[in-house]
């Protein structure tokens, strides 16, 4: 060891460490960061999300070298990349496939956090940073979606931006401000390009760094929900239920990376359009402001929330208003607060019930679509379960979570289809279940018989 210290103090690393915390950072976040030894395949998706972020940044840089953010030349520049630039088709398909795979990985990463209670104390800030990353990804995907300047890009942006006009008082002016014009035009393309290439990536990288720093400060969760930092430690003060992230989990994650890249390459080379879900057929047609596509729908990763937007009709606001009134009455009858606190929430629910009938249903559709994402920020305070992991919850909790996952997939499918009475009813039922899952979580999450949580992680060598 003495010889190693001499080398470090006199060698290049010693010179660097006196000026930059390279070795200490490596030790703190990689080689001496102890992660629980019972990680399973669900823990691949965090590192895969980081991998896809790198893929998107690198391929995006090469695309920007040839792309023209001009309404007259944008579509032609994409065609030029596909047909004339050496390897351009490969870079473009990697980027378009990466956009969809990013959401696949992030949705699964968030699902793992939901199942194992990774948002619970002391990881509330880790979860909040993660949801902020998800919002940034949605913004990044939306702004980038316009750039090919195809038919679906153009009309999709037109529809989404027009939604902001439903906001009372400021809506119409806000829509014009976002577009930079009265319709989606060259000004819109330029500002969307600036946000997609510069503004949001900078915020996204900062949030990813904050997410990792916050995670390594409190430690990783595990399938048992046991805090290894509070468990037994060896004579060096290291958790006995943990393993150094490097080399154990860096090698472990290579397995996940290899499997992911096989699937990724198969899509890029054999089916980059994925039947019109990754790349819509209408986006291979130049944007035409005089010809509206028969059915306008966002990309698949937005469709669950788009379904909730479409579900919020005038009739549906009656249902939501009634639910708000029932919730207010239940709180008044069984409320546990005192004084003003006891009546504040019921009064708020009554006000919401009234506003649901006063304001336009289109506005409440926008609120529902946005609120179903924003509510994720409050998940750490909605879950009152005495245990973190789904492993030790009552069996009927597992059914509730399974129905939530099925509901989300159904909402996603419905959002890709043209509206019909049957599908609208399906999306309304799905929206009600989605909202009830979170709003009623303080009640149902603490009901039932919970299994005892072990003092140490349950680990079987493999």
UniProtKB/TrEMBL annotation:
A ubiquinone binds at residue 216. Pfam families: Cytochrom_B_C, Cytochrome_B. Heme b b566 binds at residues 109, 211. The chain crosses the membrane at residues 41-65, 99-119, 125-147, 159-180, 192-215, 248-270, 316-333, 340-357, 363-379, 399-416, 422-441. Residues 12-224 form the Cytochrome b/b6 N-terminal region profile domain. Belongs to the cytochrome b family. This is Cytochrome b. It comes from Bordetella flabilis. The lineage of its organism: Bacteria, Pseudomonadati, Pseudomonadota, Betaproteobacteria, Burkholderiales.
